[in-house]
C-alpha cells in the first residue's frame, strides 16, 4: 500500500501514509493508481467532521478527483458526519471527479437510507 506525504509535492513514499486523529476519529489517506482511499475509523460527528475536509482538500488541490471513502471501521455517524460526506461529494464533483463509499454499515447505512441520500454515493471497490 502506498502512502503520501502531507505536503503538496507529487513524491510518494510507500512507507508513509497521512494520518489525522481527533477526539474519536482517525483518518488515513492512502494513494493508489489514479485515486486515493480515505479510511475513517471511529466516530464521524460534529466534533470530528473537519478532519474529513482536512484529508480531502489536499487531494483535490493535487488534482486527485477520484476518492474512495472506506467507512468499514466507522463506529458511528450522525447528521453532521453525513453532511460532511455530502460536502466532500460536492467538492469532488466541482473538480470533475467522483467520491465513492465502501464498507457502508450501521448508523451511516441507516442515515443514508432514511435521508434518501444513498444514491448520492456510489459504492466503490
From TrEMBL:
Pfam families from the UniProt entry: STAS
Domain STAS: 25-125
Gene3D superfamilies linked to this entry: STAS domain (3.30.750.24)
CDD domains per the UniProt record, alphabetical: STAS_anti-anti-sigma_factors (cd07043)
Family label: Belongs to the anti-sigma-factor antagonist family.
Protein name: Anti-sigma factor antagonist
Species this chain originates from: Nonomuraea purpurea
